[in-house]
Amino acid sequence: MILFLLPFLLPLAATSQTYANLTVGGSTLSPVGPNAAFSSPSGDFAFGFYPLPNSSLFLLAVFFNATSPTTIVWFATNSAGPVQVAAKSTLLLTGAGQLSLTDPTGTESWNPGPTGATHVSLLDSGNMVVFDADDTPLWQSFSSATDTLLPGQSLTAGAFLRSKLTDLDISLGRYALVAQTDGNLVMYPIMLPTGNYYHAYWASNTVGSGTKLVFDSSGSIYYVLKNINNTNTQTSEFLILNTTYSTRKFHQRATLDPDGAFRLYIYPKNPNNGSWESKWSAESSLPTDPCEGVRSDYGGGLCGLNAYCRSNAGVQPQLNCECPPRYTFLDSERKYLGCKPEFPAQQCDVDQSSEFELVEMVNTYWPNGDYDHYKPIEENTCRQYCLDDCYCTVAFFKDGDCWKKRLPLTSGWQGSNIEGKAFIKVVKSNSSLLKQRQPNSATIAVKKDHSSVLVIASLLGSSGFLNLVFLVTIVALALAFCNTKESKNKLQHDPRMSEVNNLRAFTYKELEDATNGFKDELGSGAFGTVYKGILLAYNSKSQTPIAVKRLDRLLKDTEKEFTNEVRSIGQTHHRNLVKLLGFCNEGTHRMLVYEYMSNGSLTEFLRTSPRPSWSLRVKIAIGIAKGLLYLHEECCAQIIHCDIKPGNILLDDDFVPRISDFGLAKLLRPDQTRTNTGIRGTRGYVAAEWFRNSAITAKVDVYSFGVMLLELVCCRKNLEQDAEDEAATVLTFWAYDCMRGGRMEVLVEGDEEAAAEMRTVERFVMVAFWCIHEEPSLRPAMNNVVQMLEGVVDVSVPPDPYPL
Predict the structure, then answer these.
(1) Residue 633, Cβ neighbours under 10 Å: how many?
(2) pTM of the model
(3) FRET partner for 758 with CA separation of 20 to 30 A, picked from 412, 420, 679, 722?
(4) 453 phi and psi, to 5 degrees?
């Protein structure tokens, strides 16, 4: 324990009496022009509009004006995070004596709250203060810290610092430093986007009252608290960070950085009087090495799921987020999102152990995800156990102990202080399984574009000319990549016997005979009508039931597009997708031949009486999620279905769910929609962004899945016009009211099996409401959905999916 004398601080009013930067009825600030900001008397700080990099938006901020580059130390925030405003916004002190920031429409974006102010001043300490006529502070930025503390500033009990997302992104970040009211100073990782805290990665483990984290003028940061017992009150002070350099010669700040470390920085005021460079240097850090210190039982850790952190120890280590061998970043610009494998996962229903190998990674460790432990054991035996286990992703070996771990890997780090070694399972470089990850012809030229999907430009409202260019480009690339001249000729001139990706090319007469003249109709939808048929073997002794989809609502002149789209669909292989057996592309006839699903669609399944078992509904929900995950992330090119609904989920002999009609959206006529709003999809399953003229992403399928998940939980349709309770007409509204009111048992009333599994019911319902949030960015990706449904990761309480 180190004791300090609290510094004597001059009253704020004494400094403010000589000047005022803003007054009632006086000048205003606006982002563009000479009145964008004003300086403190010394010129060290400025307050006003700060331009955001790579953006036309601005922050209302306090920043170091004398450093290069200028450095933000405070910015205006609300409950949603940093307030970002446009060029024609205005800051003024209103006639009511209230500091008010308004956007170009005159709508107020931010105000600090108090009224009756007469002037606003920026002090030499960097504190922006709102005063009344008696020079009494009504509000000050020092009492509303964001991610930084300055000398003379304190963090009182109940207050906290919140990191930025990255050095360039001022969005709410993934870490918080909290001065708790119980006397404990704690550093937490934060779950995005909910803001919930994970387990602490550092804590003072103190108890008391009157707590305060103080940054004094000597350059020391210490934690003050009062320990109260039956006889007296004792004040304790614990050093947190410090520097030997004086605040007279160095600018100083303490910032909770985007990597979760709380660092004290210095910047020379007169760099020419010594050997100092004009830059910020970290003097001390907590923790010293974030790679080792910033860890949690949940979440991806510092570098995200399946990644690991590597750094050199020191006050300001050079942090690097890395992917294991044959893994790649989900987003190279936001490496904290983690990594994904470049190869398909090992399957458990067939022996694929010979297709995989283990790559050694010394001094590398992922602390979580253990599901098996062997001791004592030899290293080679440990390796073999992992190779033989389809669930094992990593084996960690140390001194005769062997731990097996599964995906996702969390909080990974690499350093010389880590004893032992990791063996990560990857597909062999010559494995045939790697072909499943090769990009197909439709995306080979545009794979790097995150928006590249198999949904044509007409879905996004592009012009006819651009559509034509887009389609011609796809066709040219497809033909160059997938076909030789010989195979093209065979496909065009011998439709009876030709094959595409092992798909059989049927003649119209063959399918007419198989369906008995297209008489046994199974159903119809946006793409055409489906008929049941029987396919006879050449010896006429065996029969194979098939489903023939007759496409009668296609774009004009789509012969080549149809052929190439068939190739794309034919490259998809997954347990939860309907298998395409063949096609017909003869004259004006376009037909697809699928395997027949004997148990019909999910629509009929949900109407079964008595209701289907809860355990079967759970398996179906997870199966559909895995099928969508494959379409979105694991097949050769991302496919957005655009019409996920119970009618497009078919059930095979064993009630395994199979997604149908995937990959067909680009063949639909631009004017062929299911509603009169010019959108794709079916009423009740359509995401809000379709109505906003927004870019369409895979999150539209996530929304539809969320609605369907509620239907599986409650065993009812999304819309029931004849519901006994009018409030239950719309399933999503009714279910959210039940969840918010703590009455989720009502959702499975009369279902004894589901009622006995309320934890699973509650988890599924919360996942559903994450999926149907109105804001697409808040919806989870399907890989996260699968993990939440399977209970691999915890599910937090979702926000209101229908915010005002």
Answers:
(1) 14
(2) 0.53
(3) 722
(4) -145, 165
CATH fourth-level superfamily of 1-144: Bulb-type lectin domain (2.90.10.10)
Q: How remote is the C-alpha of 206 from its chain's centroid? A: 35
Share of the chain above pLDDT 90, in %: 35
Q: Calculate the alpha carbon distances from 58 to 36, 40, 137, 667 in Å.
A: 10, 20, 26, 44
Cα dihedral: 66, 68, 73, 76 (round 10): 100
Task: Write out pLDDT tens, residues 257-309.
Answer: 998 899 999 999 887 666 788 899 998 888 887 777 777 666 777 888 899 98
Amino acid at 1: M
pLDDT tens per residue across span 311-340:
765 445 557 889 999 999 988 878 888 899
Q: Closest by alpha carbon to 68, among 216, 380, 300, 276? A: 276
* Parallel, antiparallel or unpaired: strands 108-110 and 119-122: unpaired
- In terms of Cα–Cα distance, which of 668, 664, 706, 670 is closest to 685? 706
Q: Is the peptide bond before 646 cis (omega within 30 degrees of 0)?
A: no
CB atoms within 10 A of CB 14: 9
DSSP bridge partners of 295: none
Tell me the backbone φ, ψ of residue 410, rounded to 5 degrees. Answer: -130, 150
Contact at 8 Å (CB) between 683 and 582? no
According to CATH, the superfamily of the domain at 483-595 is Phosphorylase Kinase; domain 1 (3.30.200.20)
| Domain positions in the chain | 1-144, 308-437, 483-595, 603-789
Which stretches of 375-453 are assigned E, i.e. beta strand?
Answer: 394-398, 401-405, 412-414, 421-427
122 SS3 class: strand
The catalytic residue positions are 643
Residue ranges with strand state E in 440-510:
499-500, 503-505
* Sheet strands (E) in 269-337: 281-286, 308-310, 320-322, 327-329
For residue 801, give the DSSP letter.
S
What does the alpha-carbon distance between residue 365 and residue 368 come to, in Å, rounded to a whole number? Answer: 9
Give the count of beta carbons closer than 10 Å to the beta carbon of residue 543.
Answer: 11
CATH topology assigned to domain 603-789: Transferase(Phosphotransferase); domain 1 (1.10.510)
pLDDT in the model for residue 254: 96
What is residue 118's three-state secondary structure? coil
Cβ partners under 8 Å of residue 106, min gap 6: none
Class of domain 308-437: alpha beta
Distance CA 699, CA 681 (A): 13
